[in-house]
Amino acid sequence: MSWMPHLIAAPILLPLLTAALMMMLGEKRRPLKARINLFSSLLGLGISILLLQWTQQTAVPGSIGVYLPGNWQVPFGIVLVLDRLSALMLVLTGIIGVCALLFAMARWDGAGSSFHALFQIQLMGLYGAFLTADLFNLFVFFEVLLAASYGLILHGSGRARVSSGLHYISINLLASSLFLIGAALIYGVTGTLNMADLALKIPLVPEADRGLLHAGAAILAVAFLAKAGMWPLNFWLVPAYSAASAPVAAMFAIMTKVGVYTLLRLWTLLFSGQAGASAYFGGDWLIYGGMATIVCAALAILCAQRLERMAGLSILVSAGILLSAVGFAQPSLTAGALFYLVSSTLALSALFLLSELIERSRSAIEVLLDYEGEILPRTQGSLQPPKGFNLDDEQKTVVGQVIPWTMAFLGLSFIACALLIIGMPPLSGFIGKLSLLSALINPAGLGNAADQPISNAAWGLLALLILSGLASLIAFSRLGIQRFWTSEERPSPLLRRLECVPIFALLGLSILLTFKAEPLLRYTQAAAETLNNPQHYVMAVLGTRAVPSPEAKAALLEEQP
Amino acid sequence: MEEVIAIAIGVLAASGVWLLLRPRTFQVVMGLCLLSYGVNLFIFSMGSLFIGKEPIIKDGVPQDLLHYTDPLPQALVLTAIVISFAMTALFLVVLLASRGLTGTDHVDGREPKE
């Protein structure tokens, strides 16, 4: 279809225009803005799904769609590129955006002004970062999404948010400076910022400049790794995410994935197997840095006392797993990692929404906790029912009470979230982890005998995958028992139906993924193959010609009578 | 000229990092400012430094990089300046909010224990 390439620009333009419209609507009219926001987000999701289907249909190798927004010849103008990986990320962003927005519409969007405009700008930055094929344009979209996130993290105000927001902003400003230094160094060495062009130029870099190129790439990587949450660059993440309001935190669940996505994209393009002397530069750093992240986050999760904190730490665990798996540069492992990425992002986003609902009932009776005010584990004594509490005529604790539907909903959702994050059967988290494990043990594919023995790094990641699951299992069961099974008088939380819908949707999608795992695994397999063969990407981008102007077309027609 | 620019970038970046590690929010803002100046100069110098060459094509001058300076880093630096300026302004707002809410200008929102 001829209009299809133009649709590639739509996910960026739509939120931009919507945000501009909302700015014009002024401070008030929140219900109207909420409706426009929802309509635009749904439309964005629809467009993403169309684009995803399109990548499945096209006969081009690697099914890559290229769009030249300014109609400039390729290495000079900016380019938007859609391939399987970016289409998958677009759809994931769309789903999470709609769910977070539905949740926010129940209560949270009134907590400060301009929530809806910031939300749309955040979406624009995310969509843009997934679509762009130009290093500097990537920087601009990063800044767009960060600028919106600075506003969103402070949404609702309060001491904890401002305080952790201050750290979040300064860390990200520093990371942006590093991004610029890295991009400038790479430009200085290669003379281009187009990712496809860079992939061609890097093998040709003279030996004397290679050190400079590697330094630039490493500095750039530090900026992305700080975003993706690799240890030790991730100390800001947990306080910031756990202080943010629930819908914002749910949106942020995909922000670390932006870091992982850019690393995957740039690393597979710039330092692929065809990059000559620079092939797989820094792969070991990704593998072992990811492992260190898993270890630290899994240890921290064991002593976390609040659900928001546990959700933040689970994000770090999944980021560590993803980074480490990506570092192996093995298509089957990347495919498993992409499946795991989808499943864990959906689950973590649901967990952030859920944790606010669960903790809401606590905050009704306890003083709202300061973010650093980690309470100590309860002593055994407090598990006994307090005197005069909930006893029937024979002075026995009442058994078999009717569970209010809210508690039943929260409890069941909590169990589903926990299963997904831990990676226990029967939900899709298990399938994600299983495909990672099987790719680690069978590097050549199931049933094929591998030529070389399994490396120590692979064994290490294998062990850490299982142990981090165990740590999450212990932490989640302890917290679940504390929140749901202790006999403690507390009002059953008041939920609005609108707040349950997004959690239900996110978890429902995860359950759907369990049944429909095969198509998604096939899709991620194809995406990983495309990443492993960057020449398709390079050829598709550099082979795109600018559309001739009407005069040039007329001249061409005159030449050929 | 390369030496002068290099020293300038080094001094800006070093003072920026030093201030960034200080405990008061205003020092952090100044540090981020200085650091972004250093970074901007760095990007600018990546297009190789010339005196008296323009980034815009003129009539009668051969169109190659021997006669012009690279225009791309200048365009990039313009974008980077605008973005870092806006972000610093936003950071100042958060700084003031933090000062108002916590009553201290310490980056952690509370004075360190003696």
Give a written overview of the molecule.
Chain A: Keywords: Cell membrane, Membrane, Transmembrane, Transmembrane helix. Chain A: It is a multi-pass membrane protein. Chain A: Pfam families: Proton_antipo_M. Chain A: Belongs to the CPA3 antiporters (TC 2.A.63) subunit D family. Chain A has one domain (10-358, 495-545). Helices cover 70% and strands 1% of the residues of chain A. Chain A contains 22 helices and two strands. Chain A has helices at residues 4-7, 10-25, 30-57, 84-106, 115-131, 135-153, 159-190, 195-201, 207-228, 237-243, 246-252, 255-270, 283-302, 307-327, 331-365, 405-422, 428-441, 456-485, 497-515, 517-532, 534-542, 550-559; strands spanning 65-67, 80-82. In chain A, strands 1-2 form a two-stranded antiparallel sheet. Chain B has one domain (1-102). Chain B contains three helices and no strands. Chain B is 64% helix and 0% strand. The chains are: A mainly alpha (561), B mainly alpha (114). Chain A binds chain B through residues 136, 140, 143, 147, 150, 154, 157-159, 162-163, 165-167, 169-170, 173-174, 176-177, 180-181, 183-185, 187-188, 193, and chain B through 20, 25, 28, 32, 35-36, 39, 42-43, 46-47, 72-73, 76, 79-80, 83-84, 86-88, 90-91, 94-95, 97-98, 101-102, 107-109.
